[in-house]
Amino acid sequence: MRIRGLSSIPFTGILFMCLLFVGWVAAIAQEQQPSSPSAAPASLDKTSKEPALDEKDPTPSPTVDLTPDANGNLSQEQMQALFRVVADKDLENDKRLRNYTYVEHDVHTHLDGKGNVKSKEVKTYDVLEIYGEQVQKLIEKDDKPLDAKEAAKEDDKLQKIIDKRKNESDEDRRKREQKEEKERDDERKYVRDVADAYNFKLVGSETLEGRDTWVIDGDPRPGFVPHAKDGKYLSYFRGRVWIDKADMQLAKMDVESLDTISWGLFLARIHKGSRFMLEQTRVNDEVWLPLHVTFKVDLRLALVKGFHVDGEQTFRDYKKFRTSARIVSVGEIKQDQ
Length: 337
What we know:
- By secondary structure, the protein is an alpha+beta fold.
- The chain has one domain.
- The chain contains five helices and 16 strands.
- Helix 2 (76-97) runs antiparallel to helix 4.
């Protein structure tokens, strides 16, 4: 059982989904009420308006002048403005994600120095919302359902999380909510650093799943000064992103580390050439959510020998539910599924 969040994602997931390019993860995104691809223009002028998020948040999305010049290019200022909008939408998508249950399938392949497979770990999780927290419940290992004993252990862990929340004092709840708000504020600063951290270049256009996207490369901008604590790591990466023209949402991202990066004196080191790719999909015509994540990592943890990991995560069976403060039991969760 894992609480969905930075403390629960595998370490390689933290490195990439928390510290890469736009902090998507896990991590990764946000939305406003999107229009259909056929109705939305491929370029927006200063008078065009995006629809409101929803009835609870009627604030319209910022307008961006994305009219290309005579050569069909966007200026650096236009692309920075675009990425600020994409970053804001990313944060909203993260909120929307909490309105969904889904299945996550993880494959981690450990390689030796010659690229040969040493071991392979395959796990499948139900991702549930338990009173404001996303919880990953293990349901399969190596693509086989858990046996009765293992399944019972997962149910017991889930029940402990429910009981902890049920018995949470007002003071503990206040401290937890304050901590969560600080984490959200740090995330907002980090995500919005992205627009300033890179020099962007419009490569062209490409169709993904029948939708038009801008293809944009980002290289570290000399002299970048981060506002977020972890923003300093952005300069260690370069990448290419695909931005949906109609929704101005991240559709795909491919990122590579440019140099060796260390966290702490002996905590971890990720080496040059490690790579991460994220693909997202539009769900229920209202939100963009993760579809497929792959990564190739050359990593050293603490003082142990370095190792190579190829990873793949797929996300499926998104099901929307209405959030509620009511705490239920494991039995009720099973009945609702």
